[in-house]
Amino acid sequence: MTQVPGSPHTPQDAQGDGGLPGCSRHPDRPTGVRCTRCEQPICPECMVSASVGFQCPSCVRTGSGTGHPPGAAAPRTLAGSTIAADPRLITKILLGLNAAVFIAVLLNGGETGWLLRRLDLVGLVEPWPSPPYGVAEGQWYRLLTAMFLHAQIAHFAFNMLSLWWLGPPLEAALGRLRYTALYLLAGLGGSALSYLLAAQNQPSLGASGAIFGLLGATAVLLRRLNYDMKPVLILLGLNLVFTFLWPNISWQAHIGGLVVGAAVAFGMVHAPRHRRTLVHVATCLAALLAIVALVWVRTLQLLG
């Protein structure tokens, strides 16, 4: 885009606290927020609330809500994805998948345990029907299917409410593909740590690992945008207290999901603009390799 000297979008070299760039209209004000259309830094005074993120006054004046100013780059999310018309689509799909599996379990009636045993996360389950099955026997799909199972209505309701609350802002900030990758990797991270550290024959299921991953990612995103961290830190603290004090909760899945979700989000929102895709792919691959390594180590322990 051609820059006109003195225009609102002239690049600024000002650096504020922590190396943050200066606002494009007020260079002396450091900010971590950028216009979702032209990607210029904007301070709180210049932020104009939009359907996704914030826009600068110039983009609001020169464009309609769906296009972008002539010569300007197409609008992008904070992580560099194209802005979707429905920033809740993937979240709705995930909610639908969880609900469908939960209903399928309920419809099994007396055979509920049969379905759960074939999809939850276990090591070696010798007391259950032969042949033995589980991740240790090569059924790695259980690391994924366990993320969509809930044995109780309260467990299901709490996780789905959390998903609906945490998911859309992250989906809007990261974009659909990156958000999907983060959710799945966080859930797999929770499954992997539960598989590694939990008792050998202890079944484990639920979307909680992925939900904790979204919570960790939210904290990383708010820190990146220089927003008030107190609400999310209080929420995270309360959830961790319940994790370790409430009975029958897999703390391993919660911690695994939290760590992976925060790590993947950090790589996505802090990647250099000119190498975003490369850094994002490398971050996801590194998380996936770490998950595979944990599962491999545990499998060797069980079968060795």
UniProtKB/TrEMBL annotation:
Regarding the membrane, this protein is recorded as: Multi-pass membrane protein
Q: Lineage, please?
A: Bacteria, Bacillati, Actinomycetota, Actinomycetes, Kitasatosporales
Instruction: Could you list this entry's UniProt keywords, alphabetically sorted.
Output: Hydrolase, Membrane, Protease, Transmembrane, Transmembrane helix
Q: What is this protein called?
A: Rhomboid family intramembrane serine protease
Q: Which GO terms describe its molecular function?
A: peptidase activity
- Compartmental location: Membrane
Coiled-coil features, chain-numbered ranges = none
Q: Name one Pfam family in it.
A: zf-B_box
Question: Which residue stretches does the UniProt record annotate as biased composition, category Polar residues?
Answer: 1-13
Chief place of localization:
membrane
Q: Where is the B box-type domain?
A: 23-49
Gene3D superfamilies membership:
Classic Zinc Finger, Rhomboid-like
Signal peptide start-end: none
| UniProt-listed InterPro entries | Peptidase_S54_rhomboid_dom, Rhomboid-like_sf, Rhomboid_protease_S54, Znf_B-box
Peptidase S54 rhomboid domain segment(s): 138-269
Its EC number is 3.4.21.-
Does the keyword section mention Protease?
Answer: yes
GO annotation, biological process: proteolysis
Give the transmembrane region(s). Answer: 89-107, 140-167, 179-198, 204-222, 229-247, 253-271, 278-297
Q: Which domain of life is it from?
A: Bacteria
Q: Which family does it belong to?
A: Belongs to the peptidase S54 family.
Which region ranges are annotated with the description Disordered? 1-25
